[in-house]
Specification:
Elements (H helix, E strand, L loop, with lengths): L1 H30 L2 H68 L2 H24 L3 H22 L8 H46 L3 H31 L13 H50 L8 H31 L8 E4 H11 L1 H6 L3 E4 L5 E4 L1 H18 L5 E8 L3 E7 L34 H11 L3 E6 L11 E8 L7
Parallel strand pairs: 2-4
Antiparallel strand pairs: 1-3, 4-5, 5-7, 6-7
Helix pairs in contact: 2-3, 2-5, 2-6, 3-4, 4-5, 6-7, 7-8, 8-12, 9-11, 11-12
């Protein structure tokens, strides 16, 4: 129970810490510009690295000083031992010669060498820090003074060569101990340098944690800088797709807020223009459809001889009027479909759509056109569901199916297939018409562009159908491609294959 309470307290403290960091980051973003934030991030990233560099440089400098001091000390000890050996040998040699030859000049040389030895010992005692070395040097000094006193005494003449050599034996023993101690001091110096080197290496390795720390700091600042930019990109994509309903308001650096304010002003103006366009098209379409219905009804009555028989010329004029009325009606319907593209409210209300049922409904609307040309419709009926806007998708499929009917030969086939994968949902609408030239596969999506009409077509299009399809697919993050159906197993002759692709994020098959 106690462990559970401690775990809860730790979790609460962690959540509080994360909340504090989030509030700090938001406050930081709202109060600094991107330039300052970048400079601040560079400073926080560089500071640990600079501190680690200064620490390493300081330690290396200390090691260099210690190594220099140790080398100098070793050189001094080596030189001292060499000088002591040489001077003691000279002192002993001149003392022995003086005892044997009893020559005053040899005595003078002995005294000079003895004083030189004393000076060397005194100089070494002042420079050495090792206590054992100082004690040995002091013992060597005392022994040297004892021999000096002995040689300068009145009884020195009675001493033999063997006695002199025995007197110097103690001096040699102390000098030997001094050499051994010097070796110990040198070894100790080398060991100290080795230990210091290892310690510095360990300290430098221990501070390698600064690297992930700096990477973490860099990552935090990258997130702080790129997060507002990603949000801004999302807002721009919404504008690109024609969504002018959602207000653009972003928190972040001053530059991001300024761009967001500019985008918001642009969104409001675009939204206002879009509403004006939509209202204008709806109004014009409504005003045109009312008299058009009366004209169509009247022309049909005249054409059917309901008000009396017509001669051949009158019949021809009525046929022209009838065809023109039908074309005008198609143009009005296309304008209404195009108004869906302009209306950003049509982007809302995404729902789960039964693709098979939607295709069936679209085909039912075109049932009379299909029947009038004796076309056979082949459609995949396997269950497939898609999250999309049913109104927009219906307009897309209706326009493509209308083109397929228009360019299909009498008693031809139209095949509709669809399949899904992890990446996308693909819908193919294949006809047996004349197909389309490769050079025109992009141009047909231009507004009001119209290709060569088929021979059996009685109604001329408006040139807006595929433009509407492409714009609506752009809003749904989809794409459209027109290819030849010659190599498809579902086609028995040349024709056009219109392929619609929607991303897999919108697909949910059952």
């Amino acid at each position: 129970m106690a462990n559970l309470n401690n775990l809860r307290k730790s979790k609460a403290r962690l959540n509080k810490l994360l909340l504090s960091f989030y509030l700090f980051s938001q406050s930081l973003l709202n109060n600094v510009s991107i330039n300052k934030l970048t400079l601040l991030g560079f400073t926080f990233v560089a500071m640990p690295l600079v501190m680690a560099l200064l620490f390493s440089a300081n330690k290396v400098s200390q090691l260099a000083k210690q190594s220099t001091s140790a080398i100098y000390h070793v050189a001094q000890l080596t030189q001292l031992n060499s000088r002591l050996d040489d001077t003691i040998a000279k002192v002993e040699r001149y003392a022995s010669q003086y005892i044997v030859l009893k020559d005053d000049e040899l005595h003078t040389v002995f005294q000079r060498q003895q004083k030189s030895l004393a000076a060397i010992i005194q100089e070494a005692m002042l420079m050495q820090q090792d206590i054992a070395l100082k004690e040995l040097l002091n013992a060597l000094k005392i022994e040297n003074e004892r021999i000096y006193t002995l040689i300068n005494s009145a009884g020195a003449i009675s001493l033999s060569l063997n006695q002199i050599q025995l007197e110097f034996k103690q001096l040699h023993r102390i000098n030997k101990e001094l050499e051994q101690r010097s070796n110990v001091v040198v070894n100790q110096q080398v060991l100290d340098i080795h230990r210091t080197t290892e310690k510095i290496n360990n300290n430098i390795l221990a501070r390698l944690y600064i690297i992930p720390l700096t990477l973490l700091i860099a990552g935090v600042f990258i997130i702080l800088i790129t997060t507002p930019l990603k949000r801004l990109t999302d807002k721009i994509k919404r504008l690109e797709q024609g969504d002018f309903e959602q207000e653009i308001s972003l928190h972040g650096p001053a530059e991001i807020r300024a761009i967001a304010d500019a985008l918001e002003n642009m969104r409001q103006r675009l939204h206002s223009l879009e509403l004006q366009k939509s209202s204008f098209i709806r109004h014009i379409s409504h005003e045109l459809k009312t008299p058009l219905a009366a004209i169509r009804e009247g022309s049909e009555l005249i054409y059917d001889n309901s008000v009396g028989p017509l001669n051949e010329e009158q019949q021809e004029i009525c046929a022209i009027i009838r065809a023109s009325v039908n074309r005008l009606q198609r143009l009005i319907e296309d304008l209404l479909d195009f108004n869906i593209v302009l209306d950003s409210t049509s982007l809302h209300g995404l729902e789960k759509i039964n693709l098979a049922q939607l295709i069936s409904d679209v085909c039912h609307v075109r049932k009379l056109d299909i029947k009038s040309k004796g076309l056979t419709l082949k459609c995949t009926n396997k269950p497939s569901f898609i999250y999309s806007n049913s109104k927009q998708l219906s307009v897309i499929l209706d326009n493509i199916l209308s083109n397929a009917i228009k360019y299909s030969p009498i008693n031809g086939n139209i095949t509709i297939t669809y399949s899904s994968s992890k990446e996308c949902l693909t819908i193919n609408i294949i006809d047996q018409g004349p197909g389309i030239e490769l050079s025109l596969t992009d141009k047909v999506f231009d507004a009001f562009y119209q290709g060569q009409a088929p021979e059996n077509s009685q109604i001329k299009g408006s040139g807006l159908g595929l433009t509407i399809v492409k714009e609506l697919l752009l809003r749904l993050n989809g794409s459209i491609k027109i290819t030849s159906a010659e190599n498809l197993s579902t086609a028995t002759q040349s024709g056009a294959c219109v392929t619609i692709t929607l991303p897999n994020t919108q697909v949910d098959n059952e």
